[in-house]
Amino acid sequence: DTEVTQTPKHLVMGMTNKKSLKCEQHMGHRAMYWYKQKAKKPPELMFVYSYEKLSINESVPSRFSPECPNSSLLNLHLHALQPEDSALYLCASSQNDRVGQPQHFGDGTRLSIL
Amino acid sequence: GNSVTQMEGPVTLSEEAFLTINCTYTATGYPSLFWYVQYPGEGLQLLLKATKADDKGSNKGFEATYRKETTSFHLEKGSVQVSDSAVYFCALGGAAGNKLTFGGGTRVLVKP
């Protein structure tokens, strides 16, 4: 069982749809992360939130919009996605964003763009 | 910049065999090192970590020692089980924002 919960587990959407991915943790962590993982590849960092503020955006296209409404929740809003955005989206959290803090991952949302 | 190189897979073993997955890194300063495991259909699980030179991380029979002189963090397990079949990622934590640098991953398949 993971302590980082992601919903939904699977999502299929068309290129004109708007949807959101949700991530929740109750470990009191103050840093949260979004990653994208393509098949047979390592995760690629997308965003980092530290104390509910966006601290890192790895030049992610604006069709991905992150939001951190409180210290336990992290959302990723999706709009006008492309087929190449189909991937596993992973959320992670750590105690803070200081170097060397271990990150704890959820099981991900598998996203398919039609 | 930081980089991690790990051996390409797949690595196919019989049950109870000895497993080694090589991992070497390039980094400035004193990074932390991690091994993560990803079982089919799941996210990444932290397997073990080491924060300074000569530290040995261990968990579930897996071990890895932080070797600064050889810039390596090889993963070992003395007797693998079918349930150890997974993808293993070596990762380095040394960048601002706690960014992780991952190796390419090594797929391990253990046959009964």
The major pleated sheet of chain A works out as:
7 strands, mixed
Tell me the major beta sheet of chain B.
Answer: 6 strands, mixed
Work out the number of β strands of chain B.
12
Ends distance of chain A: 31 Å
Shape of chain A: globular
Shape descriptor of chain B reads globular
Rg of chain B, nearest Å: 13 Å
Question: What fraction strand of chain A?
Answer: over 45%
N-to-C order of helices and strands of chain B:
EEEEEEEEEEEE
Radius of gyration of chain A: 13 Å
Structural class per helix/strand content of chain B?
A: mainly beta
Structural class category of chain A: mainly beta
Seen as an oligomer or otherwise, the chain set is: heterodimer
End-to-end C-alpha gap of chain B: 41 Å
- Round the mean pLDDT of chain A to the nearest integer and report it: 95
- Low-pLDDT segments, ≥5 res of chain A: none
- Give the helix proportion of chain B (percent range): under 10%
Describe the structure in your own words:
The complex is a heterodimer of chains A (114) and B (112). Chain A has no helices and 11 strands. The relative contact order of chain A is 0.34. By secondary structure, chain A is mainly beta. In chain A, a hairpin with a 6-residue loop joins strand 4 and strand 5. In chain A, 0% of the residues lie in helices and 56% in strands. In chain A, strands 2, 4, 5, 6, 9, 10 and 11 form a 7-stranded mixed beta sheet that branches. In chain A, strands 1-3-8-7 form a 4-stranded antiparallel beta sheet, with no helix packed on it. Chain A is globular. The N and C termini of chain A lie far apart (31 Å). With 112 residues, chain B is an all-beta fold. Chain B is built from no helices and 12 strands. In chain B, strands 2, 5, 6, 10, 11 and 12 form a 6-stranded mixed beta sheet that branches. In chain B, strands 3-9-8-7 form a 4-stranded antiparallel beta sheet, with no helix packed on it. A two-stranded antiparallel ribbon of chain B has the order 1-4. The termini of chain B are far apart. The mean pLDDT of chain B is 95.
